[in-house]
Amino acid sequence: MKSINVKTSHPYEVIIERGSISKCGEYISKITSSRKAVVITDDIVGGLYGDTVLSSLKNSGFECTMFAFHNGEQSKCLSVFGEITDYLCKAGITRSDIIIALGGGVVGDITGFAAATYLRGVDFVQIPTTLLSQVDSSVGGKTAIDITGGKNLVGAFKQPALVICDSDTLKSLPAETLADGMAEVIKYGMIKNGSFFELLESHDLDSVDEIMDEIVYTCVDIKREVVEHDEFDRGERMILNFGHTLGHALEAWHNYTDYTHGMGVAAGMCMITDRLAPADISERLRKCVESYRLPTGTDIPMKELLPFCSKDKKREYGEISYIVCKTIGKADIVKVAVEEFSRLMEG
Ligand SMILES: NC(=O)c1ccc[n+]([C@@H]2O[C@H](COP(=O)([O-])OP(=O)(O)OC[C@H]3O[C@@H](n4cnc5c(N)ncnc54)[C@H](O)[C@@H]3O)[C@@H](O)[C@H]2O)c1
Ligand SMILES: [Zn+2]
Question: Global pTM?
Fold first, then answer.
């Protein structure tokens, strides 16, 4: 078992261990004196791992029930949020009990937001089951739901009380969902760790399970470092957005259908690197991205994408921040006028 301590305003441990999902009751009983819990999940993950989690909790003396909503981003909304909080209320959850998010980033984000707001805050545990949620969304304390005006526009900072990453659960993921998470993994190598990037270069989507625990550990540790320096997203945390300005634009251009976040991030990283970094760096990134079956660019004309970039949340007062890696393992945050960014990308 490997573990990482995240020293934010509410410190917590991230456990990285194959098979840990079946021991979750043991781990959770160490961080709470309550023996009452509710598990929130989606229908797919609930069907795959719900029983394992519930029986482990029961074996550790927890009284617990599970609420499952329909899987997918469209559930990260106000009405499902309402259903979750009603369920917590009916289950008699008090401020000293515990809420468990079992699933990918959608489950983690909406459950975290419910935990942040129900009774003005109840402790919650993340059991992330997608690669993206293990290496990214379960750590760092950002929780949110989507509203008509946009994604993640209503949310709160709420650190989990514990995160349990079981990389064996990733074996049931469709290849495309695994690839999706690999975009964020490659991002971590690019922004912070050259030798980790080399490890990724020496594998591909079919062989990546061999190094999965190392991947999760390294990425969580990078996220820990960044989040500890900038818990409330005021500056340094922005380097985690490498590839995301164009990535978000690509996702939005496709109306958030048939084009995943990871595809956007992968293409976004390649496009900015092609323009601003030495050719050998951009070539290595492209090869790596291809070996995890992710796109390295787009046919959509830049003119059509740019309007979506300037709607980005990272834009302020006519300026836009983008991240560039001129060498592998080091990122810079560059702030320019929106027009300057457009010229750069169109050129
Ligand atoms: N809070 C943050 O810091 C943060 C960071 C990045 C992304 N996010 C959010 O995360 C969300 C995306 O998360 P995601 O990519 O995990 O998507 P997701 O939660 O929708 O999961 C993707 C699909 O995989 C299924 N699934 C999950 N685990 C599985 C498993 N082990 N086996 C088989 N199927 C499984 C789910 O049911 C779902 O259909 C977005 O809403 C995004 O905004 C949040
Ligand atoms: Zn991302």
Answer: 0.96
